[in-house]
Specification:
Helix content is 43%, strand content 5%. By secondary structure, it is mainly alpha-helical. The chain has one domain: Hyaluronidase domain-like. α2 runs antiparallel to α3 and α4 runs antiparallel to α5.
Length: 202
C-alpha cells in the first residue's frame, strides 16, 4: 500500500463489521476515563451482549470475532481485548478455540502495553501469544495451517517479532487512538502490512 493522508489510508483498512461504530477513544490507563467504570467512559452503562461459542469453521458469521479484528486493526487494543474475552469465556476458556482467542487477547494486551510505553509488558504478552498459537497448531491436524481464517505460523511469527520490540510506537502519546503494530489481521489473507501512515482518530 502506498503512503498518503491519514483519512485515505484509514479507508484502505477494510472493516468486517462496518455497521458497528468505533468508540471515541482507545482506553489507556491513566490517560482516559475507564470505559465501563467511569461515567465519562465510552461504554459506561452498556450491557455486554452474551456470546455463543465460536465455530472456527464459521468465523465469517461470528460478529464478535470480526468486530474484535476491526478494533485491533484500527488501534483499539483494550476494546478488542474486551470483545474477544467474551468469546474466550463462551468457548470454555480452553481447547483449540479457547487458546486461539486467548492468543489474540494477549496480542491485544501487548498493544495496550505499547501505548502505555511499557516494553516489558509488550514482551511478556507477545511471548505468551506466540506460545498459545503454537499450542493451537499442535492441537490441530498436521495439515491444517489456518484457524479462524488466519495462518497460525504467521501469527506465531508476528507475536515473536512484537516480543522483540517491533512496534510502530516508541512511547505514550495523547492521541485518542493509535495503531502501534505494523500489520493488520485479515482472515484468509493472513497478515498484511499496514499503510505507512497510521489511522487517524475517528
Amino acid at each position: 500500500m502506498e503512503a498518503g493522508d491519514g483519512q485515505s489510508d484509514r479507508l484502505e483498512i477494510r472493516r468486517f463489521v462496518p455497521d458497528e461504530p468505533f468508540p471515541t477513544y482507545s482506553y489507556v490507563t491513566g490517560r482516559f476515563p475507564h470505559p465501563t467504570r467511569d461515567r465519562a467512559g465510552h461504554s459506561f452503562g452498556v450491557v455486554p451482549v452474551p456470546c455463543s461459542a465460536p465455530d472456527p469453521d464459521r468465523w465469517r458469521d461470528c460478529r464478535p470475532y470480526l468486530y474484535g479484528l476491526d478494533l485491533f486493526n484500527h488501534g483499539y487494543y483494550w476494546e478488542a481485548h474486551e470483545v474477544w474475552e467474551g468469546l474466550w469465556h463462551a468457548s470454555g476458556r480452553g481447547g483449540p478455540a479457547g487458546n486461539f482467542i486467548k492468543g489474540l487477547i494477549k496480542l491485544a494486551a501487548a498493544g495496550v502495553k505499547a501505548r502505555e510505553g511499557r516494553p516489558e509488558g509488550v514482551r511478556t504478552h507477545a511471548q505468551r501469544a506466540a506460545e498459545l498459537f503454537r499450542q493451537v497448531a499442535a492441537q490441530l491436524p498436521s495439515r491444517q495451517t489456518c484457524y479462524f481464517g488466519l495462518s497460525l505460523q504467521r501469527l506465531v511469527d508476528l507475536a515473536t517479532e512484537v516480543a522483540r520490540g517491533r512496534v510502530a510506537s516508541s512511547g505514550p502519546t495523547e492521541a485518542p487512538v493509535e495503531a502501534v503494530f505494523q500489520f493488520v489481521l485479515y482472515p484468509e489473507e493472513s497478515l498484511l502490512a499496514r499503510p505507512a501512515t497510521r489511522p487517524s482518530a475517528p
